[in-house]
Amino acid sequence: MPDPRKNKERGAALLTVLLLVAVMAVVAAGALERVALATRMTGNGGAIDQARAYADAGAEMARMRIADLTASNPAKITLAGGWMGTPQSLPVPGGVATVSVSDAGNCFNLNSVVSGESEAALKVRPIGVTQFQGLLEVLGVNVRQAQAAAAGLADWIDSDSVPQPGGAEDEVYAGYARPYRTPNRLMVDPSELRAVAGVTPAIYELVKPWICALPVTDLSPININTLLPEQAPLFAMLLPGQLTIAQARQLLAQRPADGYGSTVQFWALPSLAGLSPATEVAEQVKLKTGFFGVNVAVDVGGTQVVERALIDARESPARLVRRNWGAGA
User: Fold this and answer.
1) Interstrand relation of 211-212 and 123-124 (parallel, antiparallel or unpaired)
2) What is the block-wise mean pLDDT of the chain (329 residues), using blocks of 10 residues?
3) Which stretches within 194-314 are classed as H helix?
4) Which keywords fit this entry according to its UniProt record (predicted)?
5) Most Cβ neighbours (<10 Å): which of 26, 68, 104, 244?
6) How far is Cα 298 from Cα 307, in angstroms, rounded to an integer?
7) What is the C-alpha to C-alpha distance for residues 252 and 203, in angstroms, rounded to an integer?
8) What one-character DSSP code corresponds to residue 295?
9) How far apart are CA 96 and CA 296, in angstroms?
10) What is the reported pTM?
11) How far is the C-alpha of 63 from the C-alpha of 115, rounded, in Å?
């Protein structure tokens, strides 16, 4: 007669083996999934590296083209040739790179609210603060909010710890739910403006298309030969209270096809009669572009990479001074 205890032992052993097989299957499936993920990540990393290399090449080609553009007419830069904003497609192995160039000086330079060469000696520049306030006002921000945002920006960048009237230094930011301090240095990216006291999300979204953070404290170098009619607020801010956006837009629309030959000729226009720009403002208007923006979008096998570069063309040869990366949408 079979021993029932042996049957129970064989059943327990079989159950143990089945459990072991199940565990091993789970472990093996997890290992295979990780191997597959690692393989995909390695492939994606290689594709991104390749796309970045193509983007670097596109930015370098744009830099050389900018150097040729500035050398072809040292006296002025105009819209002749359709170089600004026109996408240029460059075929690359397995995809395409699209390059576009813009005038990166036609914007409000956030760093112009201070003056000084070293970060230990950055002082508030009243005319720069006034221009930022003027830009906000022509865009529809009320006077009180515009004053607070402009003063806050100056305090954010200047080297001292003494707040401007209506501004904010460390003691204000220390009282926030998530406290932080003012950097007391030039801005590197215009998105930093979001952290400034007095700049609400609504104000930032409103002013975002009009601002930049050039690596200098110079007043915004507006090239009157490339400024577009739709960028009229950038000219109206130079003469707050004296020039409306509509007047500035009309002025830009009447620009000669070959641009202005001198700033004296420009300021002598009948449409500007009666206006009295300060000397700094009169000199702020330029005939040439000193900074160019380059946007390179690369699509290689479904991998998308965007490079944005800033080119300094104030001296020859033009040089790359900044770049940042982002994934394509």
Assistant:
1) unpaired
2) 55 66 66 57 65 90 93 92 92 91 97 89 95 96 97 96 93 95 95 97 97 96 96 94 90 91 91 87 95 94 90 93 72
3) 201-207, 232-236, 245-253, 263-267, 279-284
4) Cell inner membrane, Cell membrane, Membrane, Protein transport, Transmembrane, Transmembrane helix, Transport
5) 104
6) 8
7) 26
8) E
9) 10
10) 0.83
11) 28
